[in-house]
Design brief:
127 residues, two-stranded antiparallel ribbon, 3-stranded parallel beta sheet, globular, 4 helices, 15% strand
Length: 127
């Protein structure tokens, strides 16, 4: 990814399922790739009933596989922002996660994609 004369290499890892750290699905193979990263970005669907639960499950699986993964800098890409007109879903996510950076995006409409690129570059520079 290039933005404002800065460059970052991104790896898109398919979604992990509960039990991935115990070998469910392709979990261990995906977790090995994640272990080689310097920072993490979790894409969460803000239209889910409890998107914070998805983040908690992902963080749990990371920690079970390799506790050091929980020390990496990370952020949330709150996708489907176009369906969260009043921001209530994102507000609930912010309340659940505390001070973790949340970038509001829509893959469909392009809302926040440039902001996400900047946040990812900044996150990569923290490592």
């Amino acid at each position: 990814m290039n933005l404002d004369f800065r460059q970052l290499v991104l790896a898109d890892i398919p979604g992990l399922i509960e039990g991935a750290s115990d070998g469910a699905g392709m979990g261990v193979d995906f977790l090995r790739h994640i272990a080689r990263t310097r920072s993490l970005a979790f894409v969460v669907d803000v239209t889910e009933e409890k998107p914070g639960d998805s983040i908690a499950m992902l963080r749990h699986e990371l920690g079970e596989f390799e506790p050091a993964l929980l020390e990496k800098p990370w952020l949330i890409a709150a996708n489907k922002a176009d369906l969260d007109d009043n921001g209530s879903a994102q507000a609930a996510l912010e309340e659940t996660l505390g001070d973790i950076e949340i970038v509001r995006v829509s893959a469909l409409t392009g809302i926040g994609i440039r902001d996400l690129a900047g946040a990812l570059l900044s996150l990569g520079e923290k490592t």
